[in-house]
Amino acid sequence: MPLGDYIIMKLSADVVLRRYHEEDLPEFSGIDLISVEQIGNFGNRPIHVACIRGDIDEINALIGGGADIHALGELGNTPLHEAVGQNNFEIVKLILCLGGDLTVKNDFGDTALDIAINNNRQDII
């Protein structure tokens, strides 16, 4: 098939929000998800969920759609806390390059760096 016959669709924030709605994720169950800054049932925004899922394309789309990389979610975690908790070095690197703050403490008083140290995440430290 010639290249011209392929339709290339760039992932957009709207596509990610629709995907999350269609997957009926518990975080957004019963919520009409219409904004990248919408807070879910457990206190997370879509950017937190994307960091937990480890999907860098979703994260880029959400950030491109205006998602706040400093937003506090469930238990006071930022997207950076979530990425470190999932041991996803590429996402940690992306968030730090975009100005992610290593000094923000969650509800337990832990920074993202504390989480990396406590979980012996040498590649992140």
UniProtKB/TrEMBL annotation:
Gene3D superfamilies: Ankyrin repeat-containing domain
Short name of any one Pfam family annotated for the protein: Ank_2
Protein origin, superkingdom: Bacteria
Keyword NAD recorded: no
Molecular function via GO: ubiquitin-protein transferase activity
Biological processes, Gene Ontology terms: protein K6-linked ubiquitination
UniProtKB keywords: ANK repeat, Repeat
ANK repeats: 42-74, 75-107
Keyword Repeat: yes
PANTHER family in the cross-refs: ANKYRIN REPEAT DOMAIN-CONTAINING PROTEIN 39-RELATED (PTHR24171), BRCA1-ASSOCIATED RING DOMAIN PROTEIN 1 (PTHR24171:SF8)
Identification of the protein by name: Ankyrin repeat domain-containing protein
